[in-house]
Amino acid sequence: VNEEDQLRIISMEKGGDVLGVFKRLARGIQTVGDSVKAECGKEFMLDEKYGYVHSCPTNLGTGMRASVHIDLPGWTSLGVDKLRARCEELALQPRGTRGESGGQTGCT
């Protein structure tokens, strides 16, 4: 409670079916929203101008973030600093397989 995310719904799977993952995420969000409304009569706070309202102002809008995990054989063997430098050149953020602040494992 009172962290950046009051609620986090995650949809992920191996492979490249991004649309399928998104559709499942949308169904999950709708299901949770319907359940909350049925339980207490409340809905997610949605502002016409700013989108979904969160406890963290930087998360205004959709509140959605998409991530892709890919194998990068060779890059991790060169060291994390080389990987970070290359990602910076490509305007990407390297993250570990254990989530946002997790370390890199293997070649992923």
Could you give the topology of this structure?
Layout: H1 18-40, E1 46-47, E2 51-52, H2 75-78, H3 80-89
Outline the structure in words.
The chain has about 110 residues and is mainly alpha-helical. The chain is about 35% helix and about 5% strand. The chain has 3 helices and 2 strands; from the N terminus they run αββαα. The chain has helices at about 20-40, 75-80, 80-90, and strands at about 45, 50. The protein has a two-stranded antiparallel sheet. The chain is elongated. It starts with 17 loop residues before the first helix and ends in a 19-residue tail after the last helix. The mean pLDDT is about 80.
Descriptors:
108 residues; mainly alpha; two-stranded antiparallel sheet; 3 helices; elongated
From the spread of the alpha carbons, the general shape counts as elongated
Oligomer: single chain
SS class: mainly alpha
Q: Which runs of at least 5 residues are low in confidence (pLDDT < 50)? A: none
**Mean of all residue-level pLDDT scores:** 78
The strand count comes to 2
Cα-atom Rg, whole angstroms?
18 Å
SS strand fraction:
under 5%
**Main sheet properties:** 2 strands, antiparallel
Number of helices: 3
Distance between the termini: 31 Å
Secondary structure: helix percent = 25-40%
Listing every helix as H and every strand as E from the N terminus to the C terminus, the arrangement reads HEEHH
**Spatial ordering of strands, largest sheet:** 1-2
